[in-house]
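Researcher: Hi, I'm a grad student and pretty new to this. My advisor asked me to get structures for two proteins we've been looking at. I'm not sure of the right format, so I'll just paste the first sequence and hope you can take it from there.
Model: That works fine. Here's the first sequence with its structure tokens right after it:
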Amino acid sequence: MIEARTQPSRMAASDRRQQLVETALDVFSRKGFEGATTKEIAAAAGVTEAVIFRHFPSKQALYKAVLDYTVQASGHEGWLAEIKACMDRNDDAGLLRALAASILRSYRKDPRFERLVLFAALEGYEMGLAHHHQVAMPVYDLLREYIVRRQREGAMRGHHPGVIIEAIAGMTQHYAMMTQLFGYSAPDGLSDEKAIETFTEIVMNGIQPAANPTKKNHK
């Protein structure tokens, strides 16, 4: 007896939308907003352009959905909670370590997210840049307020708070870009954990106040 074959069920609307967002992320991260086309995205997803516009009214709307998805998939709320916990217990080194780890983890988990932001900057695409600012600036302000408080408490030197943030973020991001996007190997087999610890120590040694400063005898 030959069993009747059933036709495969159509993909649910929510699943199709997710597939299109994932596919668009891949294409946008390789070609930027200007270089990517909905025709190319549709072909990569195995659908027609009509299917894309059934779920998204425009290419810009699809791009916005991709940007929102990158924040959701990045675990933003989780590492932000970790940073706030460090602040609550005045764990300066832990805070810097958590910030560096979140940056490096983002590159390692899915470098497409970072490529998307880089393309937005290179193209000067306002939607991508505005979305990045919307996500990044509240975190920056939170870190800045914490550093200012710790400086007032005498726990940190009076360096510009923004420069302190850029020091730890800049070192980590450059390292991540070189090893993840440019294909360079970590120096001497350096682990990510050791790199993060080293960056943290470099910054901490530059912002901690001198302990028990000695007075020079003038003869």
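Researcher: Oh nice, that was easy. Here's the second one.
Model: And its structure:
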Amino acid sequence: MPGNTSDISQYLDLVKLIIVVIDADQKVSYINKKGCEILGYEKKDIIGKNWFDNFLPERIRTDIKTVFVKLMDEEVEFAEYFDNVVLANDGREIIIGWQNAILKNDKGKIVGILSWGEDITERRENDKKREELIQELQERVTELKSIKMKLPICALDKNDLKEAMNKHYSHISTAGSCPECLRILKVARKNN
């Protein structure tokens, strides 16, 4: 069993998740080794810094900071899980799936948040690609259905669709009707 804070810190450095403690003053009081790796900073460059101002993209800082302040004042409901973007040292945006726990002092006052999470950027990108492929497939199916509705009857079961359609429209332009289409329709009427 660990005996002191440095022992616990060593164990937390073995965890393959980002672990961060943000105090009520919005400053990072702890981050593990994996968190430093994900963000691309040394621990000394993170500890004591304002989490929101330094490690979140500017476009979401104000909103996330506002929720945090309201949470510290117990004005909003606590979210045990959420995804949000962090900003790496090299400018990359990394999506983290966060689990959260409120930290309270002996008097029950909220003094910070313990958060741990995993980098889900690749998973989200794959989800987005999959959704785009599904959308493209649905559009192609709709397009094929539309084309099928415009295909002449005589061309439906032909391997060379272009040749079949050329024959069909050649018959239409010269004779006013397609003998193959008429034959197929007669057979269909007979069978019904």
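Researcher: Is there anything I should tell my advisor about the second?
Model: You could mention this: The two ends are 83 Å apart (CA to CA).
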